[in-house]
Design goal:
Number of helices of chain A: 2
Number of helices of chain B: 12
Strand content of chain A: under 5%
Largest sheet of chain B: 8 strands, antiparallel
Oligomer: heterodimer
Distance between the termini of chain A: 39 Å
Order of helices and strands of chain B: HHHEEEEHHHHHHEEEEHHH
Order of helices and strands of chain A: HH
């Protein structure tokens, strides 16, 4: 270990978002109840990611 | 990434987006009310309120229900008979001839247990139908559908190329960076990127399934020609029967043939879904997935016997599964609300993309902007 961390690829977030979206889309299709809830949570988190970005926006000039 | 490669991806993103944006805006705006079609139907009275069945009541004979529907539209022939899974009602589509297209069909909605004809406007009239046609074929039929399908494919290419450009742009930035205090252009660019990535997976799936849905007519025709054509050959040269065996018996036989399933709808001979000599009783399961995967049971309309239970080909299964993934109507009201929010975010991606195009400057400046995470002095761009 040399203490130097490799910068994370900018494609990590898109990859996770795509994966989560597919889980959300398929979940409600395969069943009701908890499967619907998984779907709602996934898409609520995605919308939440935008809300978080907006709340934490950088207003510095 | 080489600058020349980046420039090529930038041009792909720019042109695929530009060509499809106006049509995508139309699709997103018209798709928004369509997500809530059922709810709007209830609120506006387009969908009739159906009283629950009385305790111990038995469903009416299906042939009687069809005859009551035909009495509403003298001179018509029956085309389709279907069940509503969420209420004790059925619908009967009728038309002047067996191959009447949907825009010219008449629909009667009846109480399954009392046989009462329920007051309801036609499905192919009114504001929601207008919006639906704008969304599906812009009132020009198959050419319109295929054109919108091509736009949906361009949208998918625009998304993929957008992700490729997102990489170099975000190399030195944290996920979700939104810089609103500098130039207006940078604020819109960050907004475009954040929204584009958040909606990435959803928009890609909704776009591609939308493109698949535009192929519904050609795929149905291919299925009718290939699979149903084989059965039709056995009846070649025989005229379409004038007298049909009882629908009620046909459905009972289909239920017996597929005991784990329930009937979704029945096609009458000549409608294109079951040849000229059969009822097509389309059975489905009762989970969100299986209720969309039909299993046709073909019943000879002269003998009343089950002729075949063909499995739908893979391309029809793909089409049927792409429909819920496009409409978002399979996870209750919370999913519909989230679907609508993601639709609104996609509209924001499109509008921000248009803004960025209007304030575009030179291609070289834009490529440099991507390479430097948006931190580039550009005298030609207004604040």
């Amino acid at each position: 270990m040399n203490g130097v961390t490799k910068p994370r690829s900018p494609f990590v977030a898109p990859a996770w978002i795509t994966l989560a979206s597919i889980v959300g889309l398929v979940s409600a299709l395969v069943g009701d109840g908890v499967f619907d809830v998984v779907s709602w949570l996934v898409f609520a988190v995605l919308v939440g990611l935008f809300v978080r970005a907006w709340v934490k926006r950088d207003r510095k000039r | 990434m080489q600058r020349s490669t980046l420039k090529a991806w930038f041009l792909v993103h720019k042109w695929t987006s530009l060509v499809c944006t106006v049509f995508l805006l139309l699709l997103c705006l018209t798709g928004l009310p369509l997500v809530f079609w059922e709810e709007i139907g209830h609120l506006t009275g387009a969908d009739p309120e159906v009283a629950p069945a009385a305790a111990g009541a038995q469903p009416q004979n299906l042939d009687d229900l069809v005859n009551r529907a035909l009495a509403e539209y003298p001179g018509d022939v029956p085309l389709f008979f279907g069940w509503d899974d969420h209420s004790p009602s059925v619908y009967v589509n009728t038309g002047a001839r067996p191959d009447t297209p949907p825009p010219e069909m008449h629909t009667a909605i009846l109480h399954q247990y009392t046989g009462e004809v329920l007051p309801a406007p036609q499905f192919n009239e009114g504001v929601m139908y207008f919006i639906y046609r704008l969304h599906t074929d812009v009132f020009v039929g198959l050419p319109g559908m295929l054109f919108l399908g091509a736009m949906a494919l361009l949208f998918a290419v625009a998304i993929v190329s957008g992700v490729v450009l997102y990489g170099p742009f975000m190399r030195k930035l944290k996920f979700g960076t939104l810089r609103t205090g500098r130039s207006r252009r940078l604020a819109w660019l960050d907004l475009h990127n954040v929204l584009g990535i958040v909606t990435l997976g959803w928009a890609l799936v909704v776009g591609i399934t939308g493109a698949i849905n535009t192929l519904a007519k050609p795929l149905e025709q291919a299925w009718q020609t290939q699979q149903l054509g084989e059965f039709a050959k056995r009846y070649e040269g025989r005229p379409r029967p004038e007298q049909l065996s009882a629908l009620d018996d046909a459905v009972a036989r289909a239920r017996a043939a597929e005991p784990g399933m329930t009937p979704a709808f029945v096609s009458f001979p000549g409608t294109g879904y079951s040849g000229d000599h059969h009822y097509g009783v389309f059975m489905h399961g009762n989970t969100p997935l299986t209720e969309r995967l039909y299993r046709p049971v073909l019943i000879d309309v002269e003998t009343g016997e089950v002729t075949a239970r063909p499995r739908l080909p893979g391309y029809m299964t793909m089409l049927l599964l792409s429909q819920p993934l496009h409409f978002g109507d399979y996870g209750g009201m919370p999913l519909k609300v989230l679907w609508a929010l993601l639709d609104l975010l996609t509209i924001a991606v499109l509008v921000s993309g248009l803004y960025l195009w209007f304030k575009r400057g030179s291609t070289e400046a834009r490529v440099t902007e991507i390479e430097r995470s948006g931190l580039v002095a550009d005298a030609g761009i207004a604040r």
